[in-house]
Design a protein that fits this description.
Helix content: 10-25%
Number of strands: 19
Radius of gyration: 18 Å
Shape: globular
Structural class: alpha+beta
Bound molecules: zinc ion
Length: 283
Amino acid sequence: MKIAQVRYEGQVLAARVDGDTVFPVVAEGRRHMSDAVRDLIADGTAEETLSTDVAGVPLADVELLSPLAAPQKIICIGLNYADHIRETGLETPKVPLAFVKTAHCLTGPTATVRVPRGSTEQLDWEAELAVVIGRTARDVSVEDATSYVFGYTVANDVSARDAQFSDGQWFRGKNFDDFCPLGPWIVTASDVPDAQGLAISARVNGETVQDSSTKEMIFGVAETIAYLSRYMTLYPGDVIATGTPHGVGMGRDPQLWLRDGDVVEVEVEGIGLLRNPVHVTTD
Ligand code: ZN
């Protein structure tokens, strides 16, 4: 099942997506809640609730939003593809290298990424497979880890490299407003038989810049969940962005930075496509 969060007739609603049709569901008592999808996942009722027989509306008539609005945490794994590590010249991590984006970064799968003028000269993209946690995970084994996955979605871990590398840690450079386009929906885990065998790619203005496979990850989804859960409890709706393959702007020769008017597409096979224009704001 594909589960989205949509704006339809002025309301933000959880919805099932089937082909070109969206089935928005207003769960009782949740009409105005800001993160209906996360709440449905936490309640264990997402698939049941969203299977409700309701009238469908054309996909073109809704605005797809980030499928999650307020996850407790968005954990990103850095340097998790061997080909990407080579292009950065950095050392291969011995364990997953985790950092955070906070929920204020989230934006929709077609939303404009708005960057304040003068805030960065090195705006970059990172195509990533994102995992959505389905139930509370604390110190789980590698063998059991994927049973804690609710589903998968697509993230663009937008990064301002100058800010990222001038501060001594990565928080500012990874956490500008709009730096986490997510979506276009969550595909439930039962519909993703092998998360480690998916094509992953990015395009800038239609030109392919990243083209790899999730099988190239150093630490796979199961290892990453098991590792993180030793130190911190993972909660339903938490997002883990699993790192990016080679081909980011920083690693190219010559380097390539996003500019006003560029359009970035990030795609993961069998999951979906993000298509975000970049706008450098003048105010
Ligand atoms: Zn990343």
